[in-house]
Amino acid sequence: LHRLELLTAQEAAQVQAASPLPEQVRAVVDVLAGKGSHMSQPLQSFIGNSSLQLHLHIPVYEPTVQKHLESLQSSCGNGLEPGALQRLTNLLLVEGPTDIQQKEHDILQVETTKGLPNVSKSIPLEKLFLPLSKVSIPPRISVTIGVAGIGKSTLMKLFVCSWAKGEINRDITFVLPLTFRELNTYEKLSAERLLFLAFPHTIEPGCTLAGATRTLLILDGLDEFKTPLDFSNAVVCTDPKKEIQVDNLITNIIRGNLLQEASVWVTSRPAAARQIPSGLVDRMTEIRGFRDAEMKDFLDHMFQDNRDLSSQVLQHIRANRSLHVLCTIPGFCWISGSSIAYFLKHSSDQSQEEPMVPRTLSEIYSYYFKMALSGDWLEKLRETFRTEQTVNTSKKLVGSLGRLAFYGLLRKKHVFYEQDMKAYGIDLSLLHSSLSTRLLLKEDTQASTAYYFSHLTIQEFLAALYYYTAAKRAIFDLFTESGMSWPRLGFLSHFRSAVQRALQAEDRQLDIFVRFLSGLLSPRVNKLLSGWLLVRDEHGGFRDQAVSVLQGCLNTELAVSSRAVNAMRCLHEMQHTDTAKAVEEAMRSESLAGMLTPMNCSALAYLLQVSDVCLEETNLSNCLTYNVCKSLLSQLLFCHNLRLDNNQFKDDVMELLGSVLSVKDCQIQRLR
């Protein structure tokens, strides 16, 4: 009835002339057809006293619906900045996750594709649940994917808030938003109980969906669900009153065994979205990252009281191609912007020596953590009374959070609850400190309190800090939490173990952790964090041997994979750039011929992503043999403008290139 109230007089007149309507609905529409811009008091009374059942087996009255709408606006409207949300009003329409989205870490996806999705179709948010053509039907199962920090939860809140205000999708009668963080707190649920969790103002236990009007059930954050969805072995359930395991409940809802009348919208990081069989997904969309103008607006809003600082931060980001690509992710852009602004603010304090402009991931996060530990946040005055005891307490908290982060990473766990905090010795009273609130976010659910790191990379950096510190004294494998393993002595042994684990991990979820671990061996990072989280100059005894471990990863593969590229990025984090610089210089002088060894091929693949030499055109003329071309194929996919002339290619190479051009991920636009 609330949806009917929003009809204009003209729309109501059109409904009058449409298909036969139930008697009471006809009465409402007849009144609406003659109304002004607002509903009259008699009409409100009529609706309030009506026994009309909308969509549920219980009467739904206007006051309770209004209470739900107000609740949604209150819970979802907080923190939504209209100017920053324009990007989310248009989504990319995709056929499904690409190979790279299914196999690679979120950060590697963005780095490899340079933040440019290979998609030309888009769909406005207000049409997300409408048919694409006059002969199609609305999607029942919709999935929206996006990397960590891109804005999936913000998109969900934007949609819910806009719907509750009556601005979009007036054909949907009820929107019931839930997060997987909340579902994690339950072992078993029935479909009825699930509805009550989402709509407590109106629905009582014992009701089910029925009728022809539309309900949208939103399930936000599949990647944060504690149990993988198993569609092959899930027990079939068609009884809405029966309590079953929550993962089985979700699979039965998606399959249509339960709540068949409801549309379902799932948001997820790309790798987790592949749990849902593609045959069950009616529509898949993707959230794109910032364009340049949007990045500028975002930073202007961050530093709205200091536009000069905003311009300087943006200038620094644009000067670093790798950083610029990653800053298309809003969550990462916020961390980077904060760190660079902190550096700029304190660069004058380092007048005795040249200030260290943050260039690598590890340096960005080192500045961020130094800012966190010192309490010197940009938006407020420095906490002047930071006693030694306060700083030591903060360091201890970082250590405890690091252990939680590391073992959470191993279990693919990104949401934690009070029992997790207590198990890792974290004092809950400290979680209200300024430091904690910048690293760990808190969300109160109906059943419990959930904690999660402000961005995936924050968890990974904390995990690397813990591993780095623990590896210096641990005598057993740190990857075995119980401690029962063969003895493993010395930092280098533990470093080698971490690299091997990352190489063997099929889901690639340890790649950025190892990159941060390598970065902690950088002289610049050691200098930044010495006295805070690291001991000055302690890295010197490990660095050269760690370089050898990483270089050993570059000589073993016939084809250059993303693993080899990540090893090159690890060397860059450690400030060991000799190989990359030599290959880059050869590219500039067009003298690559004869020097493309396996290690140099890995360096070349890395440079294809980060070097300004390849920005306008990737020139690989007169330097490729059949074997070299074959080893680089998977990395050439992402070169927009590729020049391969004068390489004496024969039919076998042309067949290889033909196979590349037909790959779904291929971004080549010009080929010479």
UniProtKB/TrEMBL annotation:
- Entries under InterPro entries matching the protein: LRR_dom_sf, NACHT-assoc, NACHT_NTPase, NLR, NLRP_HD2, NOD1/2_WH, P-loop_NTPase
- Where in the cell is the protein located? Cytoplasm
* Pfam families listed in its UniProt record: NACHT, NLRC4_HD2, WHD_NOD2
Q: Which PROSITE patterns match?
A: NACHT
TM region positions: none
Does Nucleotide-binding count among this protein's keywords?
Answer: yes
Provide the primary localization. cytoplasm
GO MF assignments: ATP binding
Signal peptide interval:
none
Q: Which UniProt keywords apply?
A: ATP-binding, Cytoplasm, Leucine-rich repeat, Nucleotide-binding, Repeat
- Domain named NACHT: which ranges? 140-272
* GO CC terms of this entry: cytoplasm
Q: Does the record bear ATP-binding in its keywords?
A: yes
Family matches, as PANTHER family: NACHT, LRR AND CARD DOMAINS-CONTAINING (PTHR24106)
Record's protein name:
NLRC3 protein
Q: Which gene encodes it?
A: Nlrc3_0
